[in-house]
Amino acid sequence: MSLNKRVYESMQDLTPVVVATAVDNKPYTTFISWAIAKDEDTIRIAVSTNAKTTENIRVNPNVCLELFDKDLAVSISGQAKIITEQIEGIPFPVAVIEIKITEIVDNLFPGATVTGKIPFTHTGNIEKVEELDRKVLEALKA
Known about the structure:
This protein has 3 helices and 7 strands.
């Protein structure tokens, strides 16, 4: 299963997604903005090394991402693998997780559509956050 051109292009920069993992037959979801399509078959995300999401992936590699963008709502399932425990140059532990896609489901329903990506804005020291985003995206694209 591969990403189509529309989904692939949507995931070439900071991409907010909801990540679902599971452990002990219990689901867990979290919202992240560090997600990109590495290629048509692979997505990379960055998450704190100590986050519940990362802990869950260590135990159960099955994940699902929910992506929303203009006229787009898809569930992307796959097998996750931690490929980097610590991104160099980041002052706290951030892991790079690679997801090999196994299934893509179109979740748009008749009579409605999504009008854009999940809006989010950085708060605090914008300069530092933008520098952090740049370093993480470089690591995800490597």
